[in-house]
Amino acid sequence: MSQLRRGVVEYCVLALLWDDRRYGVEILRELGKVDAMVTSEGTIYPLLSRLHRDALVEAAWQESAGGPPRKYYELTPAGRQALEEFSAAWPEFNDAVLHFLNKNKTR
């Protein structure tokens, strides 16, 4: 299950950045609202670094009114394209997995 989750959480992070930029803890909180996507700082920050290295997100530090500066992440055009491609492929992939799961139930 962890491999499945790991492969999907990247796209959930990109989806969270679709409309607005967010900082790491904010992304963690949003993921944590869905049980299957709960993750830790030890997972999310390396993921964000990789997304940045792969040019799917941009990162910039910004001063915070109530504490230390925060690193905000936002989608790049390549990140938007990757998310659109995943969104287009997901229904077919999901249907294929359900096909085999349902086939197993009829045995």
UniProtKB/TrEMBL annotation:
* UniProt cross-references to SUPFAM superfamilies, sorted A to Z: Winged helix' DNA-binding domain
Can you give the residue ranges of the Transcription regulator PadR N-terminal domain? 13-85
> What Pfam families does the database record attribute to this sequence?
PadR (PF03551)
What is the name of the protein in this document? Answer: PadR family transcriptional regulator PadR
Would you say which domain of life the source belongs to? Bacteria
